[in-house]
Every structure is written in C-alpha cells, then in structure tokens.
Write a structure and sequence with these properties.
The complex is a heterodimer of chains A (119) and B (113). Chain A has 119 residues and is mainly β. Chain A has strands at residues 3-5, 10-14, 19-21, 24-26, 32-39, 46-52, 60-61, 64-69, 74-79, 88-96, 108-109, 113-118. In chain A, a hairpin with a 6-residue loop joins strand 5 and strand 6 (46-52). In chain A, 35% of the residues are buried. Chain B has 113 residues and is mainly β. Chain B contains no helices and eleven strands. Chain B has strands at residues 4-7, 10-13, 19-25, 31-37, 43-50, 56-57, 68-72, 75-80, 89-95, 103-104, 108-112. In chain B, the strands form two sheets. In chain B, strands 2, 4, 5, 6, 9, 10 and 11 form a seven-stranded mixed β-sheet that branches. The termini of chain B are far apart. Classes of the chains: A mainly beta (119), B mainly beta (113). Chain A binds chain B through residues 33, 35, 42-45, 47, 50, 91, 95, 97, 102-112, and chain B through 31, 33, 41-45, 48, 50, 56, 90, 92, 94, 96, 100-104, 106-107, 109.
C-alpha cells in the first residue's frame, strides 16, 4: 500500500513571496503519478500540477513548480509570487499506474497543508 | 476536462436516517469514484463505481452502509445509510474522463445530529 505524508499542517506566506510545501511518499511501485490539489474554502478540489514518475524533468505550471526526487520519494510544491487567491488547503496525492486495471484512478492523499497568504 | 454536479450541496440529517447523494457528469466516463472527507481531514476513497457492475469498496467501507448505484455512464448515487454523527463529512465524487487527471465534484456537506 502507498502512503503520502505532508509534514506541514499549516504554512503562511506574504503576498508576492515564495513558499514551498513538502510531501513525501512511500511506495514499491516504479510507475506512478503524483499530484498537487488545491481545495479553497469553496471545497472544490482543483488540480494544480502533476508529475509522471518516469519523467526526470520537474513539472511547471505558471507560478507553480515541483521538485521531484524519485530516489528520495519526495515531491515538494513551490509557489512563486504568492497571491491572495492561493489561500487554500493543499493536498499531495499519489496514483499508481495500472493500465486497464480497476485501480486506475485511485488516489491516495496526504493529510493536507493549510496555506494562508497574507497581504 | 469534466463538469460535475452533486446534489444536495449540503444537508442536515437525523441519526438513523439515510441520505442519497447524486453525482452527474457532463460526459460519459467509465469509472466514478466516491471519497469522504471528514472535518479537517484528508480525502479517503470509499469505492469505485463502474457502470454495469458492482462497486468496489475500499477497506473499512461496506456496501450495506454505503450502497452505490451506477445506472449509466454519466450518473451515480451514494447512499449513506443508518447515519450517525460520525458520518458527518464532505462526500465528493470524481471521474477520470481521459488520461490520468481526476476531476472532482463540488462535494456534499453532510451534518448528522
């Protein structure tokens, strides 16, 4: 079974600054996907960024980037130029690759990190 | 992508009663997932619902407590049966319309008194 650990229950950052959220995971799988989801107070889960384990290059989406260290099983999220709208709970999630299997799409989530961006 | 709606968005129920939550997707999808998010907690997968077959439940969740229907490729329901205050949670459905990205509904906030 997979486990995902987010060791930072809460983080805060000033607007326009940079913040990094940590995530570690444990798995015996070689092919898998990692995700960061954002859940603002509206409750809507929003995909922020994803990383395929077979790709060495770190994923980037505008102000969001990851530092994926496969050997260390680490997957941190960096938010640059933080904005007030980034205030939310952030979840790290793992999904193993099972082509055609019924487990495809099953996400294992970390405990979440509440990020507050201050003006 | 996929647009997902859930009904009701929230409800307050008495213990011992049951609530059925509906999930509607704007496109046909093979698998739908139901998650539970207890207050201040992370999301936990309840079950995977495939059209035309029995749902597959995760450890700790049973069909008698959380019966699921999947009558077609765009719709599913989750029933929370014989509710107790411990069932107070947000219940979310999700789908993977293509590739690996999972899209979530807005959630149903359930409070059991």
């Amino acid at each position: 079974a997979q486990t995902v650990t987010q060791s930072q229950p809460e983080m805060s950052v000033q607007e326009a600054e940079t913040v990094t959220l940590s995530c570690t995971y444990d798995t015996s799988e070689n092919n898998y996907y990692l995700f960061w989801y954002k859940q603002p107070p509206s409750r809507q889960m929003i995909l922020v960024i994803r990383q395929e384990a077979y790709k060495q290059q770190n994923a980037t989406e505008n102000r969001f980037s990851v530092n994926f260290q496969k050997a260390a099983k680490s997957f941190s999220l960096k938010i640059s130029d933080s904005q007030l709208g980034d205030t939310a709970m952030y979840f790290c999630a793992f999904m193993k690759h099972v082509a055609g299997g019924t487990s495809y799409g099953k996400l294992t989530f970390g405990q979440g990190t509440i990020l507050t961006v201050h003006p | 992508s996929a647009v997902i709606s859930q009904k009701p968005s929230r409800d307050i129920c008495q213990r011992g009663t049951s609530l059925t939550i509906q999930c509607q997707v704007d496109s046909q999808v093979t698998m739908m997932f139901w998650y539970r998010q207890q207050p201040g907690q992370s999301l936990t997968l309840i079950a995977t619902a495939n059209q035309g077959s029995e749902a597959t439940y995760e450890s700790g969740f049973v069909i008698d407590k959380f019966p699921i229907s999947r009558p077609n490729l765009t719709f599913s329901t989750l029933t929370v049966s014989n509710m107790s205050p411990e069932d107070s949670s947000i219940y979310l459905c999700s789908v993977v319309p293509a590739g690996v990205e999972q899209f979530f509904g807005p959630g149903t906030r359930l409070t059991v008194l």
